[in-house]
Amino acid sequence: MIKINVKKQSNYPIDTPLLKKGLSRFLKEKGIISDTEVSVAIVGEKKMKNLAKTYLKENPPTVHNVLSFPYVESKDKFVFPPDEKIRLGEIVLCYPKLEDEAKKEGKLIDQKAGELVEHGALHLLGIHHD
Hints:
alpha/beta; globular
């Protein structure tokens, strides 16, 4: 079972069930079949800039459309956790940025959100681009 938690910083009009369904399907296509958890956060530009500054050390910070933060077990924790869940990490989407990109590309907001979540999931799975 794949569990996807979605948190919105504001009342952004994202179809959460559709986003969860699409991400779950995408992860299954990539071979994730065991108990897995992933979180998706939908935030504004201020929060995204803060994340870029804090974690990417950008100064001045950029408003990214998506950032991914893999879950990292510390050395003193279980190699195989007792609950046997794989925690992939968190995908953060910047709603104003994705809304702007969707308009420019002639796409629905939910379609663009799905694309960005899949891109973020690839990073959580260790697949990166140049």
